[in-house]
Specification:
CATH topology of one domain in chain B: Outer Surface Protein A, domain 3
Oligomer: heterodimer
Number of helices of chain B: 12
Number of helices of chain A: 9
CATH class of one domain in chain B: Alpha Beta
Structural class of chain B: alpha+beta
CATH superfamily of chain A: Divalent-metal-dependent TIM barrel enzymes
Largest interface: A-B, 49 and 51 residues
Structural class of chain A: alpha/beta
Order of helices and strands of chain A: EHEHEHEEEHEHEHHEEEHEH
Strand order of the largest sheet of chain B: 2-3-4
Strand content of chain A: 15-25%
Number of strands of chain A: 12
Largest sheet of chain A: 8 strands, parallel, barrel
Number of strands of chain B: 5
Helix content of chain A: 25-40%
Number of domains of chain A: 1
CATH architecture of one domain in chain B: Alpha-Beta Complex
Distance between the termini of chain B: 56 Å
Distance between the termini of chain A: 23 Å
Chain lengths: ~280, ~260
């Protein structure tokens, strides 16, 4: 059962030290296909060698699941080929939109919490799922504003999309916490009653307080904060099975040793909590 | 088919992020929403979430600007000396550039836009060539690996063509772009013939060529054998073949193919 425990996102600054190891220093890596497909060169060869040696989960950044842009055939073909090459058991994307009218913002923008957006996104998810060789997961995002007048809560919006598309859930614990602070709700109450049976993977990351805006920003640029670790520890036993957790770090990336130390700390929490649940 | 409410909301949000002047939204978000064909309730919601949408505007502009700052430090230095870098970014974003789903393609999209728009090139005639030269490094470093053709020979000969590595770029500029530095980012006028390539270990290199060698490689890429090409260029075969052997050693040339 390779996909349990705490994995790490494979990032460019770590390619050399990771490639030099005899074996994976983590249970699994996560990688964005967009950063690999269609490229060549020495770094690419190193990346592919690591992905061939180690277990990997794939996580997409740019399919704009709630958008209107058609996916270019070459983009889909490259994605499908990459998923097959890596042997990932599933592929994930964000519940958001990112592009419109040919311009890609490369940001994870919130969809309106409306029935129209549910229907549109469910159709897009089903359309993509039908093209992929592996099951598809949607990730809940952090959001800092609502796009237009809402007809439901963010929680109900996520629930309706997950149920309507009948897809898996990549549950980002940091995003739930960030939203709970920014929008004033109890994250544990928010999670209670959600379809936890759909959770196939968890993301955990850090955030930063922006005093001028009065907003907690999902940044992936520092170690995971204690309230997020606490929320993870609360959540894990409620899943009823070991679900892989991925530590995200995309900015101010520390050296590999420091990142692996944080992973080890989270792995201890993971093992301790699940051992406690098994004896409960 | 009329545009849906969802599509109008997304178009409006992207306008807010990419328009050069967000002042109208800041002054009266509901009026701004009306101009973007949004309903009154949607306009009221945007007004309630003004802080969040201003944050999204800043996030998007930073996200799209960062790869340009990273890939084009000399271009940035050239324009920052005149306080014009932000204006250039703003003009690029306002053009609603066709940006691919690959984040790595933003510098190439920027150079294509610069070529189409001509932005700033009255004041900085070297601007496009400098930006192009800087973007070439990413292009070369990330070019897909391709298996070499099967019939390559290791030695040049008059009846063979030189086969460049698919990642190598044989380029000619009207400015000595390779001499630009962050301290002195404006390249001097004067032709530069450059071969940008990666070596066997994948490191990036720029070689300055003579016009004859650059033309010889160009003719080879067009399929002309080395012998007739050298004769047409009036170049010495001995010197040229020695240089071609050296380029093969460096990884810029894959080998030599019979015509």
């Amino acid at each position: 059962m390779p996909f349990a425990g705490v994995g790490v996102g494979l990032r460019s600054p770590h390619l050399d030290p990771v490639a030099a190891l005899d074996a994976a220093p983590v249970p699994f890596w996560e990688i964005a296909p967009e950063n690999v497909v269609g490229l060549g060169g020495a770094r690419q060869r190193k990346t592919l060698a690591i992905l061939e040696r180690d277990d990997v989960l794939t996580h997409g950044l740019s399919m704009s699941m709630g958008g209107f842009e058609a996916w270019a055939p070459e983009v889909l073909d490259r994605l499908v080929a990459f998923l097959k090459t890596t042997g990932t058991p599933w592929h994930s994307e964000h519940l958001c939109w990112s592009s419109h009218g040919g311009t890609h913002s490369h940001e994870l923008l919130p969809l309106p919490f409306t029935r129209e957006a549910v229907k549109h996104t469910v159709a897009r998810v089903k359309g993509l799922q039908a093209r992929l060789p592996v099951p598809f997961l949607l990730e809940n995002i952090s959001y800092y504003a609502e796009l237009g007048a809402s007809e439901m809560s963010e929680r109900d919006f996520l629930l309706e999309v997950l149920e309507g598309a009948d897809c898996g859930w990549l549950l980002d614990v940091n995003n739930v916490y960030v939203n709970s602070v920014n929008h004033g709700f109890d994250p544990r109450a928010w999670l209670t009653g959600m379809p936890l049976h759909r959770v196939a993977q968890i993301h955990i990351a850090c955030h930063t307080w922006l005093p001028e805006e009065g907003v907690l920003l999902d940044t992936h640029g520092a170690p995971v904060a204690d309230p997020v670790r606490d929320l993870l520890a609360w959540l894990l036993p409620r899943l009823g099975r070991p679900v892989p957790v991925l530590l995200e770090r995309d900015h101010a990336i520390p050296d590999l040793e420091e990142l692996l130390a944080e992973r080890a700390s989270l792995q201890s929490l993971y093992d301790r909590v699940l051992a406690g649940a098994a004896h409960a | 088919m009329p545009e849906s409410r969802l599509a109008r909301l997304q178009a409006a949000a992207l306008d807010l992020a990419l328009d050069p002047d967000p002042g109208a939204f800041g002054r009266d978000p509901e009026a701004w929403a009306h101009l973007h064909r949004l309903s009154a309730p949607d306009g009221a919601a945007l007004a309630r979430h003004q802080t969040g949408w201003t944050l999204y505007r800043n996030l998007i502009r930073t996200t799209l600007g960062e790869p340009l700052e990273d890939a084009l430090p000399l271009t940035k230095a050239l324009l920052e000396a005149a306080g014009a870098w932000e204006a250039l970014l703003s003009a690029f974003l306002a053009s609603r550039p066709a940006l691919a789903p690959y984040y790595r393609d933003i510098p190439a999209s920027f150079v294509a836009w610069l070529a189409d728009s001509g932005w700033g090139q009255d004041r900085w005639p070297c601007l496009l060539q400098l930006a192009h030269y800087e973007a070439v490094e990413l292009d070369v470093m990330r070019a897909p690996d391709e298996p070499p053709p099967p019939d390559l020979e290791p030695e040049p000969a008059p009846d063979r063509v030189a086969v460049l590595d698919p990642a190598a770029r044989n380029l000619a500029y009207g400015y000595a772009v390779q001499q630009a530095t962050e301290a002195a980012p404006e390249p001097p006028p004067g032709c530069a013939w450059l071969l940008c390539h990666r070596d066997h270990e994948g490191a990036f290199h720029v070689l300055e060529l003579t016009p004859h060698v650059s033309a010889l490689l160009a003719r080879s890429q067009e399929g002309q054998a080395l012998g007739p090409a050298l004769e047409a260029l009036g170049a010495d075969p001995g010197e040229a073949f020695a240089l071609l052997r050296d380029l093969r050693q460096r990884g810029a040339i894959l080998g030599f193919r019979p015509t």
